[in-house]
Each structure stands twice: as C-alpha cells, then as structure tokens.
Amino acid sequence: MYYPRTISLQIKKLSKGFPVISVTGPRQSGKTTFLNHHFENYKYFNLENPSTLSIIESDPQSFLDQNSHKIIIDEIQRLPNLLSYIQDHVDRKQKMGSIIISGSQNLLISEKISQSLAGRAAYQMLLPFSLKELKKNKLDKVNWKKQILTGFYPSLYRRRIEAKLFYNQYLSTYVERDARLIRNITNLSQFRKFIGLVAGRTGQLTNVASLANDTGISPNTAEDWLSILEASYIIYRLQPYYKNVGKRLIKSPKIYFYDTGLLCALLNLSSENELSQYYNLGGIFENFIISEIKKQIIHNNTSSSIYFYRDSHGNEVDLIIDTGINLIPIEIKSSSIFSNNFTKGLNYFNHKVIGKENNDSFIVNSGKITQKIGEYKLVGWNNLETIIK
C-alpha cells in the first residue's frame, strides 16, 4: 500500500525547473516506492540488479540515447561514472524532469553531482516517515514511547514487521553491505561495536578521542567511521549556534540518529518498560523531537537551519531553528508536567543572545497539551506542526 509523502509537492516544483532530480535518503526510507508511484510513467532501472548494472555499464551512452527521457535510475552510487554521461545527455536534450536518480549514500552522490551536474540537478532528501505523515495516514502509535521504539521506516507500517526483527536485519545489511561500499571496513564486529557506542552518546557533545579509545581504534578511524554513518543517513551532527558563524566550525557538535527505532535497537531497548528505565531517556526523547523537526525542514525543502546553544557558563537551549529571519529556541523535556525551570535556558537566550522578548519560543514535552505560558508556547510531542508548518 502506498502512503502519500510530504516531498511530493517539492518534487513537482523541482521537476519543472531541472532536467535531473536526485532523491537520496537512507535505505528502506521509501525512495523506490515513492518514485515508482510519483513517476509512474517513467521507466525504472535499479543498478543493484547485476544484469541491469552490466548492461548500462557496458555502454552508458547508448543506454541514455535509447531512453531519451522519463527514466528513473536507482542506486546510482553503484555507477558514479554514469553521471558524466547524464550531464552530456541532458545538455543535448534540455528536457526538464527527464531523469530521476536515486541512492542511499549522501556524500558519494552529492560530490559527483557538484562535479558533473552542477546547475542541472535538483537535490531532495527522503527520510523515513515523519510523525506528521504517520498521523495523516492514521499510522501513528498511541503514545510517544511506543512511537520511539517502533521508529519510522515505512516497511514497519506496510508489512507489519516486528520492530526488533526489522532493525536486526537492517543493521546486518547496513554493516555487511552499505558501510563497506563506502569504505573498506575489515573489522565488521568492531564497526558494529562503534555504532553501539555512538548510540550510547546520543544528544551528547561529540568526543572523537573517547569513542576511538572505547572502540580500540585511532581517532582518525573514528572520525572516518562517523563520516560513514553520516553519509548513509544513520546519524547527523547538530552544530552549536554562535553569533560568530566561524565558531560553529570549531566547537563540538552533538550526535543524533535519524531514526529512534534504530537508536533503541542499538541500545537493546525493546519495551516501554526498558525505555522508561533507561538512564538517558531524556536524550532519546530529545533525539525524537529534533529529528522530527529536521524531517519537516528537509521534506519541505525549506532554507531553515538547526543548531543547539550552549555557553561556557552552562546556559543552554536544546534546539535553535534559524529561519534566516527569526531565531526560534526550543527546550525539550521528556516530562509530561510543566515546570518553571524549563524556561531558564530560553530566558537567557532570548534576553542575552537575541536581546529581546521572543514570542517564537517553545517548550516541547511528553504531554499532549498545547498552550501559551507567558511569552512561551508549551507544545505536546504529537503537535509539532505548530512549530514547523
């Protein structure tokens, strides 16, 4: 069964102005299903099929000439040289939205696009379902703990697979195939241990030296492996906010996972009781909310950026949305009960950093009540669209 995705509107706009549309995202995020539904009159070619890969690889020019327009090429990272042929092809044909390319690896594709398809390709990421998409299709879970544990990968909702089984298979496929395709990782068990250690540090400042020491690898290898996890959409790094933009590049970011179901599987959390007793429940809830807001920004293809704020005096705000016009600070608490202490970081940021009262300030908690509290808005976990429309 197909469930509508938020990016449909963005893809329609992009296909009118660019000859090539690049749709990337993690494996199993629903890219193939979306593309075949959205571009149902396009011919579909999957480069993970050895026969298809062999035919195209043997003569890319003839393949493109014989399929003059309206084609989807999936898992394009398996044949990056094809991008140069695509460049020549679209320059000659000049047909908007004629070629759709897709893949599960971010850095490999974007690097090649910047070299071969600059100005010719539009870039759109498709992540697993957002909470907003689940609610629209009446697929959301009854409470936030259940939702966090289940995660957001479409297969869990289309095929009714048990979450624990799905994520065990997902991790095995990722470690044994996808990660090795990006880098030649020889010690897979050590890499798997590394991913688990990263999961244990969700929401914390990145300490590459500590990760390396605990895994038994060099800091350079640890940094390389973090880049692999980023390239394949397992994690992202949230940068700190500073008025001086240059400082964002030299201060430690925080690590978060795109999907909380995968995060919980790595932490061996499979029940609501286990999750409730986990020492860093607040960090997992924080990961949940930040990733949902990140999905909304990405799927709507807006220009907003997200950060966190922390200074040397201990003043901090969990999330800052920079729209380019406004700064929106958000405090995130796993408690369902409001406390005046939740406003401390927001007060400091608004009056000392921004320098004025800010009506676009939010406190997100695990309750379901959304209401105004002074200059702030208290938002329940399942009502995040009041922050990001």
Summarize the model shown:
The strands form three sheets. The chain has a six-stranded mixed sheet, sandwiched between helices. The protein is of the alpha/beta class and 389 residues long. It has three domains: 8-125, Rossmann fold; 131-297, Arc Repressor Mutant, subunit A (Orthogonal Bundle); 302-386, 3-Layer(aba) Sandwich (Trna Endonuclease, Chain: A, domain 1).
Question: Describe it for me?
Answer:
- This protein is of the alpha/beta class.
- The chain folds into three domains: 8-125, P-loop containing nucleotide triphosphate hydrolases (Rossmann fold, 3-Layer(aba) Sandwich); 131-297, Arc Repressor Mutant, subunit A (Orthogonal Bundle); 302-386, Trna Endonuclease, Chain: A, domain 1.
- Helices cover 43% and strands 16% of the residues.
- It has helices at residues 8-15, 31-38, 50-58, 60-66, 82-93, 106-116, 131-136, 144-150, 155-158, 163-182, 188-199, 208-215, 219-231, 260-266, 272-277, 281-299, 344-354; strands at residues 20-24, 43-46, 71-74, 99-103, 121-125, 235-238, 254-257, 305-310, 316-322, 327-332, 362-365, 371-373, 376-380.
- It has a six-stranded mixed sheet with strand order 8-9-10-11-13-12, sandwiched between helices. Strands 2-3-4-1-5 form a five-stranded parallel sheet, sandwiched between helices.
List the helices and strands and how they pair.
Blueprint: H1 8-15, E1 20-24, H2 31-38, E2 43-46, H3 50-58, H4 60-66, E3 71-74, H5 82-93, E4 99-103, H6 106-116, E5 121-125, H7 131-136, H8 144-150, H9 155-158, H10 163-182, H11 188-199, H12 208-215, H13 219-231, E6 235-238, E7 254-257, H14 260-266, H15 272-277, H16 281-299, E8 305-310, E9 316-322, E10 327-332, H17 344-354, E11 362-365, E12 371-373, E13 376-380
Parallel strand pairs: 1-4, 1-5, 2-3, 3-4, 10-11, 11-13
Antiparallel strand pairs: 6-7, 8-9, 9-10, 12-13
Helix pairs in contact: 3-4, 4-5, 8-14, 11-12, 12-13
